Amino acid sequence: MDIMRNLFLRFLSTQSTRGQAARFFVVGCSAVMVDFLLYRTLMWATGAISTAKAIGFISGTVFSFFANRSFTFKHGSSNKEQVGGFVLVYTFTMVMNMAMNYAGLQIFGHNELGINVSFVIAAFASAAVNFIGMKKFVFRRAV
After folding, report:
1. Which of 16, 40, 52, 93 has an alpha carbon 20 to 30 Å from 143's alpha carbon atom?
2. Is the pLDDT of residue 143 over 50?
3. pLDDT single digits (tens) 11-34
């Protein structure tokens, strides 16, 4: 556990990265709200949990791309490499998010508490992977 903590602290060692992480948190909270509201609305309207989760996640993702590009990492315009990298990172984390949500529902149940706990666990795990992917792969600055 100390190794993970040390790697995390080293990763956040610069003021620039800490600022990006704070902005990423704001964008992420907004994207999660988009995801959550659509997920719960579609789940209520259709009963299709996995479809509702995918649509909510994708909608939050589209919002996240534009907000992270311009606000978090301060890139002016998109290029094909950024869009492609973003799609790869988010495809991976969407699958991870959906699998964790499913597993959470199996563990905690399909009641209100289980649904909400599963959602939060899946969202936080995918957010951590997303930040690293965005910073190191998608919106990295040329050296």
Report:
1. 93
2. no
3. 666 777 788 888 999 998 999 899
Q: Is 128 a residue whose pLDDT tops 50?
A: yes
Sign of CA dihedral 132, 134, 137, 142: negative
Structural domain range at position 25: 2-138
The label of the residue with tokens 């948190």 reads 25
Please tell me the predicted confidence (pLDDT) of residue 7: 61
CA torsion angle 98 104 105 108 (round to 10)? -170
Q: Is 111 helix (H, G, I), strand (E, B) or coil?
A: coil
Cα–Cα–Cα angle for 26, 39, 89, rounded to 5 degrees: 55
Q: Which residues of 30-69 are buried (b: 16+ CB within 10 A; e: fewer)?
A: ebbebbbebbeebbeeeeebeebbbbbbebbbebbbebbb
How many domains are contained in the chain?
Answer: 1
Specify if 143 maps to a domain.
Answer: no
Q: Which residue has the tokens 């080293």?
A: 10
Q: How confident is the model at residue 56 (pLDDT cuts 50, 70, 90)?
A: very high
User: How many Cβ atoms from other residues are within 10 Å of residue 110's Cβ?
Assistant: 10
